[in-house]
Amino acid sequence: MQIDLSVQDATKRFGTFTAVDAVSFEVETGRFFSILGPSGCGKTTLLRMIAGFEAPTAGRIVIGGADMAGIPPNRRPANLIFQHLALFPMMTVAENIAFGLKRRRESKAAIQDKVAAILDRVGLPGFGNKKIDQLSGGQKQRIAIARCLVLDPAVLLLDEPLGALDLKLREQMKVELKTLQSQVGTTFVYITHDQSEALVMSDFVAVMNRGRFEQVDAPMTLYRHPRTPFVARFVGESNAWTGEVADRDETTATLVVADGRRFRSRAPESLSIGDRAELFVRPEALILQPDPENDRLNRFTVTVRTILFDGANSRLLARWSGGDEDVTIALPQNRQFDHIRAGDEVEAGWDPASGILFPLEA
């Protein structure tokens, strides 16, 4: 196993404010690694430290086996792609890609060969003579990546590069970026606040909050088995309730919420009877009109407030009968619920294995 990037206890302070707080992680060669978090969590500062634009207050950054202490950005085996790409509009596509090679004083013949080869690798052969303003948004993304890849970096750093694109192009580029990364084999470190981008493209995702990593995992594990309440809230959509633990066994506990309803859910060993806890259940885990013979399910009745139609992602927004808390329920694709209307009362249920309890944060 070869490690292209190793970050060890990286810390960055601005006066009394700690933007990045003793973060450590490693990225194997050829992996697509994403750092996911809300604005202000420290992810851009961390990326700038890796790129060399910010010096760590403490910690160590190793790229391609070499310690980067004191190494300026232009001498690091890493290249950074910004959200706005920074392509030169007065240059052709080939001239943009060749820019870094010319600064390295490579021969004209070598530059021509490398530019042609990288254009072929990013799926844009023959685009060398085009002007930047002749390209689509997706093509500009690929040229910005090609300009970095032609320098053969150990790590390619991407700072929310899809943020300026419209929704449809962004969805298309998520697939293209992942496909391109798989084809070229370069290690990508990608930062974003968009969970869909991180989950779709990445081999591993680090969820960052207040300068620290809360969890680093494969996307499916991150979604299905969040380790903290923040990850459960931030990654995907969840219904959440708070209450008190009434009883428990080795793997599950019963939570009593404010109106007296009781829900059974999987629970960590740290939760004890009498503790205040928070319950998270994904909208797709809720079953409409469940099998009456299934006695494992947590059951309750809701009143439909509205139907949020979004094709395969359609949902019901409902409210517990007699309560004031909204519940989001995904409409499954294998059953028809066209008969449901706003104002209807329907039964819903979910399996205890589908929920997760956490101690209530102070």
Concise synopsis of the structure shown:
By secondary structure, this protein is an alpha+beta fold. The protein contains eight helices and 20 strands. The radius of gyration is 25 Å and the shape is elongated.
Q: How would you characterize this protein structure?
A:
- There is one protein chain.
- This protein has 362 residues and is of the alpha+beta class.
- It has two domains: 3-233, 3-Layer(aba) Sandwich (Rossmann fold), CATH 3.40.50; 237-359, Nucleic acid-binding proteins (OB fold (Dihydrolipoamide Acetyltransferase, E2P)).
- 23% of the residues lie in helices and 35% in strands.
- The strands form four sheets. Strands 6-7-8-3-9-10 form a six-stranded mixed sheet, sandwiched between helices.
- Strand 7, helix 5 (167-184) and strand 8 (187-192) form a beta-alpha-beta unit.
- Helix 2 (93-103) crosses helix 3.
- The longest helix has 18 residues, at 167-184.
- The relative contact order is 0.11.
- The mean pLDDT is 90.
CA-to-CA gap between the ends? 41 Å
Q: How large is the count of helical segments?
A: 8
- Poorly predicted spans: none
What is the N-to-C succession of helices and strands? EEEHEEEHHHEHEHEEHHEEEEEEEEEE
Can you list the strand order of the major beta sheet?
Answer: 6-7-8-3-9-10
Tell me the CATH superfamily of the largest domain: P-loop containing nucleotide triphosphate hydrolases
Question: Strand content of the residues, in percent?
Answer: 25-35%
Q: Please summarize the sheet with the most strands.
A: 6 strands, mixed
| Quantity of strands, as a count | 20
Structural class: alpha+beta
**What name does the CATH topology of the largest domain carry?**
Rossmann fold
Indicate the percent of residues in helices. Answer: 10-25%
**Cα-based radius of gyration, to the nearest Å:** 25 Å
Shape designation: elongated
Secondary-structure arrangement, i.e. CATH architecture of the largest domain? 3-Layer(aba) Sandwich
Query: How many structurally independent domains?
Result: 2
Mean pLDDT level: 90
Please report the first level of CATH classification, the CATH class of the largest domain: Alpha Beta
